[in-house]
Design a protein that fits this description.
Layout: E1 7-12, E2 27-30, E3 33-37, E4 59-63, E5 70-75, E6 81-87, E7 90-95, E8 104-108, E9 116-121, E10 127-133, E11 136-141, E12 145-150, E13 158-164, E14 172-176, E15 179-183, E16 192-196, E17 204-209, E18 215-221, E19 224-229, E20 238-242, E21 250-255, E22 261-267, E23 270-275, E24 284-288, E25 296-301, E26 311-317, E27 320-325, E28 334-338, E29 409-411, E30 420-422, E31 431-436, E32 442-447, E33 452-455, E34 464-467, E35 479-481, E36 491-493, E37 503-505, E38 520-522, E39 527-529, E40 546-548, E41 557-564, E42 574-577, E43 583-590, E44 597-604, E45 610-612, E46 620-623, E47 630-632, E48 644-659, E49 670-673, E50 680-682, E51 687-693, E52 700-702, E53 708-710, E54 713-725, E55 733-737, E56 742-746, E57 748-750, E58 757-759, E59 778-779, E60 786-787, E61 793-794, E62 820-823, E63 830-836, E64 839-844, E65 856-857, E66 907-912, E67 915-920
Length: 960
């Protein structure tokens, strides 16, 4: 029943409309101050903004401690202020889009007369609504994007997440717990939306409902969301939704209003609604929503001033309602309503039942004070005695059994900057927070300086100190993470005691002296170390496997564990495959009465055993590592629990025991077995080697006192590289039988120090068609022939089918002149061609033999047709074939080439019947080696000697 009318008790002339058609929260009341945002039409109000002058302030701060609000300060933001939110001394503003100002602003208002700017964010679009919860601000804007802003650093707020709500704008947001509730403009049936904000970086719309019109405002209280909208779409304009399951909200009730609703605030059992202007009737409505299924209109009021100004903002504090109206309200755009009901000087009643009781001064209760809730205003609750809060019963688990405080709670401070603030007394040893057990023993404390102590400590010595109480079980973990009710938590951090581990991710606890304190154990999972990529989940990972992008290990070898029956094996000793078989443990258990664990069932081991090297066992497998960087096969120790296991180096730098049996050792020498068990030596013959020496050893051992001593054995660093090396001095051998016995003589030998190879073959070296390449020089035995590095061949005799001389040929020397032996075509007999006194002559017989006869003379000075002597004269032109150009000789009668191979441009010199002739052509057996050209003296100078060289034999000009 509508029978209650609030009383207007005060107001203030603003001169501008508060808010506009689709904005929320232009008024916020905190303590004795009201923060009022003006709608200036997105323009800057002209004038001055100060504590004394409000004309230029788009955000005004009013002192409301009396019924006559007074201006005490303001902010000139240069644009309309659409949303206002205050937490403690911090003011958050949402303004219209501006080219000169950020749309989300943060101010310090600890001094209301002089607000100071802290920070802000440029969004590029006007902000419609702001809600603050914890370290985040939840913001809706004119682009229908819902944003989450991290405000932990007020001077540098950052947008950390966002999601589009659709439509063209989002007028309102309300936050409760892990959900945000927003309204939007027309968005195809999604005008009321619920967003999961548990992950601020990735908010998700989990449900939405159709309003059919612009959703103007939403207010969340308890398990209900109260929504008002424009008077369009679905018939009801005031709707209450059950949001106990946010993923599936349900309509509880809905009420049709006379026009579009602009604002809604719920306080206690009442909902206060503001309507749009320009309608007949009251625009401020009060509904009793104690039963959300059936809201009842119990009162209303029309703002004072001009008719139908419309209610653009509502803020409820105790029995006061602070409202903002349109600019057509004469003189009072900011108004204060008194929500008090019946008023009397004194009332004495033995029993009193009232829907709401408001005490302006004091409430004195001599008995108990019982009720479902207590809702106080800015004065709060003051108690000189203890304040106790209990749930309704020990079995009640509903969230409403807990205590809720809508604002910030301060202990030791009157202006808490956070939801819960505890301010200590300023001493380092003072405790700001303390939890004790029933015996008053400290279990948890926070000191004034921020250090935290957990367990039994009363003086934390670090930022966080955890101590296991002396009275607790020695197996008490320090930190445990597990599923609800689990008895085998997957993540445990325990004490650093030698019987415990430091970190463990396992379903089975380990307590063993084998595990040193501070160890990290992953008992049921893989370990992945990545370098910022996404490789850890790009393939299936198996339990017990370590994956990493890279590994950096200080120690310098990789080894593999091998079982051994030789208990005397020590690091640095060479090992071979043991010929004696061993067994593998397949089941362990207690083997004596005192609980010793050993092997109770075995089978033949598939892994070979190793033993110290010996002259009778050449199966060299490696060397015992001193301290391997990576150890393979050392994790599953129980398979050979009955035996000693040694790490056999596979690769890397390992100290190795050596002797001088193979001679002094230099870096680069191969190390192999020696005759001493387990000791290595320099390899001098082909065979298995364990690696390459990296240090030298000549028997000198430094004592460490500046002196040295001699020893046949020592230890050097070896690069392990197991293999077979062909290092014999006799690379091959030839057996031959003498008259007396069978001797073996080395065919190849290598000087190990110089690298020289000596060859002593008994037979031919057969290369089977292969080549000898990269030879510098070759010298024959006893120096009878050689080929030097410049290609010069020195030999006693050369025999070849064809000889081609590209530049020049020389026959004989000054000390030993020689001739050239050629064979006559007709007689087939050898003829010696030689030079004598500059004349080229020929004699029968090979050069160098006795009894040579003069069968022909070249260049005698005269010519006879009988002997067909040819006179070669220098300075005469070369005659063409068949012409007479022999000044002192007879006319040549040859008109055709002398043999079929001759051509006009290729003359050759031919010896016929011991006489030299020149013909054109060539023949495979003719002399073709030459040097320069043939020349002869002039006819008038017969005394001059005729000269000829072998180039005339290949000249292209006939010889005259």
């Amino acid at each position: 029943m509508n029978n209650y009318t609030p009383t207007v008790i005060g107001g203030a002339e603003i001169g501008q409309s508060l808010g506009q058609s689709i904005v929320d929260n232009p008024i916020y009341v905190s303590g004795d101050y009201a923060f009022v945002g003006l709608n200036t039409g997105a323009t800057n109000i002209a004038g001055t903004c100060s504590a004394a002058d409000a004309t230029g302030c788009e955000l005004r701060i009013l002192d409301i401690s009396t019924s006559t609000p007074t201006h005490v300060g303001g902010i000139d933001v240069g644009a309309s202020v659409y949303s206002v939110y205050v937490v403690g001394d911090t003011l958050y503003l949402g303004i219209s889009a501006s080219t000169t100002e950020r749309e989300f602003l943060v101010y310090d208002v600890s001094n209301p007369s002089s607000p100071s700017r802290l920070g802000g964010i440029e969004l590029g679009v006007f902000v419609q609504s702001i809600a603050i919860s914890g370290r985040y601000a939840y913001v809706t804007a004119g682009d229908s994007v819902f944003r989450i802003v991290d405000i932990s650093d007020l001077r540098n707020p950052i947008v950390v997440g966002s999601v589009s709500s659709g439509g063209s704008n989002s007028p309102s947001v309300s936050v409760s717990g892990r959900y945000a509730y927003i309204t939007t403009s027309l968005q195809a049936g999604n005008e009321f939306q619920i967003v999961d904000i548990s992950n601020p970086q990735n908010p998700l719309v989990i449900s939405s409902l159709k309003l059919g019109a612009i959703g103007q405002d939403v207010f969340v209280s308890g398990s209900y969301a109260y929504v008002v909208k424009d008077d369009a779409g679905i018939a009801e304009d005031f709707i209450i939704y059950d949001i106990s399951n946010p993923a599936s909200p349900a309509t509880t009730s809905a009420v049709a209003l006379v026009t579009s609703a602009r604002n809604i605030v719920v306080s206690g059992r009442y909902a206060y609604i503001g309507l749009e202007g320009a309608v007949a009737g009251d625009e401020f409505l009060i509904y009793d929503v104690s039963d959300p299924r059936s809201p009842v209109l119990i009162g209303s009021r029309d703002p004072s001033g001009s008719a139908n100004p419309g209610v653009h903002a509502i803020f409820i504090v105790g029995k006061r309602a602070y409202i903002g109206t349109g600019s057509n309200a004469a003189g009072n755009e900011f108004q204060i309503f008194d929500l008090t009901g019946f008023e009397a000087q004194t009332v004495l009643a033995h029993s009193l039942e009232a829907g709401q009781a408001q005490i302006q001064n004091d409430l004195i209760v001599y008995g108990g004070l019982f009720g479902n809730s207590i809702n106080t205003g800015s004065g709060g609750i003051f108690s000189r005695g203890p304040l106790s809060v209990f749930v309704a019963s020990t079995t009640q688990v509903s969230p409403v059994s807990a205590s809720f405080m809508g604002g910030s709670v301060g202990i030791g401070t009157s202006s808490p900057p956070a939801r819960l603030t505890v301010t200590g007394r300023g001493t380092v040893t003072d405790w700001a927070f303390l939890v004790t057990d029933s015996a008053s023993t400290t279990r948890f404390l926070i000191q004034d300086n921020g250090t935290i102590g957990i367990g039994g400590t009363t003086s934390p010595y670090g930022i966080l100190t955890v101590e296991i109480p002396s009275s607790a079980d020695s197996r008490t973990p320090i930190f445990v993470v597990g599923d609800e009710g689990t008895t085998s938590p997957p993540f445990i951090i325990t004490s650093a005691d030698y019987t415990k581990y430091g970190f463990m991710a396992s379903t089975t606890e380990l307590t063993s002296p084998n595990v040193p304190g501070g160890s990290m154990i992953i008992g049921m999972g893989a370990l992945c170390v990545d370098n910022g990529g996404s490789n850890c989940d790009d393939a299936a990972r198996a339990r017990g496997v370590v994956h990493s992008t890279a590994a950096d290990v200080t120690n310098i070898d990789v080894a593999e564990n091998y079982p051994t029956q030789d208990l005397s094996l020590k690091p640095g000793e060479l090992v071979v495959i043991d010929t004696k078989p061993g067994d593998k443990c397949v089941e362990t258990g207690e083997i004596d009465d005192i609980g010793t664990i050993g092997c109770i069932r075995t089978e033949t081991s598939p892994i070979p055993f190793v033993s110290k090297s010996s002259v009778n066992n050449k199966n060299l497998i490696g060397v015992v590592s001193t301290e391997p960087g990576v150890l393979l096969g050392g994790f599953a120790y129980k398979s050979h629990i009955n035996y000693k296991q040694v790490p056999v180096a596979l690769v890397g730098r390992v100290p190795v025991k050596v002797s001088l049996e193979g001679g002094p050792i230099n870096p680069g020498d191969r190390i192999t077995l020696s005759s001493e068990p387990g000791i290595g030596a320099k390899a001098t013959t082909s065979g298995q080697t364990v690696g390459i020496a990296l240090e030298s050893f000549d028997g000198t051992i430094q004592s460490g006192l500046g002196t040295s001593e001699y020893s046949k054995t020592g230890k050097i660093l070896v690069f392990v590289n197991l293999g077979y090396a062909k290092l014999d001095e006799p690379l091959s051998s030839t057996n031959y039988e003498s008259d007396t016995n069978l001797r073996i003589t080395n065919a190849w030998s290598i000087d190990q120090s110089s690298g020289k190879v000596s060859v002593n073959f008994f037979g031919d070296l057969r290369l089977n068609g292969n080549s000898i390449v990269d030879v510098k020089a070759i010298t024959g035995m006893w120096g009878k022939w050689s080929i030097d590095e410049n290609g010069k061949v020195v030999a006693k005799e050369v025999e070849t089918e064809n000889l081609f001389v590209k530049k020049q040929a020389t026959f004989g020397t000054t000390d030993a002149p020689s001739g050239i032996t050629i064979y006559d075509r007709v007689t087939k007999q050898p003829v010696c061609v030689f030079s004598e006194n500059g004349a080229l002559r020929s004699e029968a017989g090979a050069c160098g033999t006795t009894g040579n006869q003069e069968s022909g003379i070249m260049n005698q000075g005269t010519s006879t047709t009988e002997t067909q002597d040819t006179i070669v004269e220098s300075g005469t032109s070369n005659p063409e074939l068949g012409t007479s150009n022999l000044e002192l000789g007879t006319e040549a009668t040859t008109t055709e080439p002398a043999f079929a191979g001759a051509t006009a441009d290729k003359p050759v010199v031919i010896l016929e019947s011991g006489i030299m002739n020149n013909e054109l052509g060539s023949e495979t057996d003719s002399m073709a080696s030459s040097t320069d050209s043939i020349s002869s003296p002039q006819a008038d100078s017969a005394a001059e000697e005729t000269q000829i060289d072998t180039s005339a034999l290949a000249s292209t000009t006939p010889v005259t």
